[in-house]
């Protein structure tokens, strides 16, 4: 082979063909076009949902949360807490399951008169001020302090222990069984979700303990609630208040969605006044409980 021929051959090896380059450009263009179409569709769908939520009526709260459970109206204690409060306060509301995570990346969040807000505790405080629904007003200063302490125990301590059992000890299996609908993508991403939750539990601190240690910690909390409740109808006395909503939101999960967990035995057997309490709140504020378990109509 001549020197010139060898040079031409080497040059061909170094330079990709125009057809290959054009193919890559075409593929990139198709991907960008598809991404653009999907982004536009999502944007339009998001706008349409907000128009629909704004059309529900003035001062009607739209609660956005995770889907229904088979035995509870919601599998999230925080969504169930907010719903229970809205029923206690007699504030009109509608549920939405299309967009469960809001501006803070949390569930639940709400839309009210076109405004969006996240975090169930902050939402309840805001709604209480807006609609004049302060159920702690008649409590003594001592009772208000106790209500605040129990509320924080439930939402900032018990919730982490319950979450550890659901996602780490039980590996989310019962969660999937109790979900009313389980999209394929949810099952596919479950291992990733479990890793994310375990990481948050570890950084919070409770994930660093053994299962037995956590069980003991949580039992002490449940015992304290049981002792304080005693034979009263509700936690602070004869009338329901905000802390009952939070307590019910968590204990209802244990009653119906934690089958086989040590906490189920604690609530139903060891501290039976907690079981009676949950059933009493359910009867008072959720007379349509079974009706609420039915699947929502798809939009």
From TrEMBL:
UniProt xrefs under InterPro entries = FAX/IsoI-like, Glutathione-S-Trfase_C_sf, Glutathione_S-Trfase, Metaxin_GST, Mito_Protein_Transport_Metaxin, Thioredoxin-like_fold, Thioredoxin-like_sf
Its Gene Ontology cellular component terms are:
cytoplasm
CDD domains per UniProt: GST_C_Metaxin
Keywords linked to the UniProt accession: Membrane, Transmembrane, Transmembrane helix
Looking up SUPFAM superfamilies in the UniProt record yields: GST C-terminal domain-like, Thioredoxin-like
- One Pfam match, given by its short name, reads GST_C_6
Thioredoxin-like fold domain location: 77-170
Identify the domain of life. Eukaryota
Can you give the residue ranges of the Metaxin glutathione S-transferase domain?
Answer: 219-281
Give the residue spans that cross the bilayer: 25-44
Into which family does the record put it?
Belongs to the FAX family.
Protein name per its UniProtKB record? GST-N-Metaxin-like protein
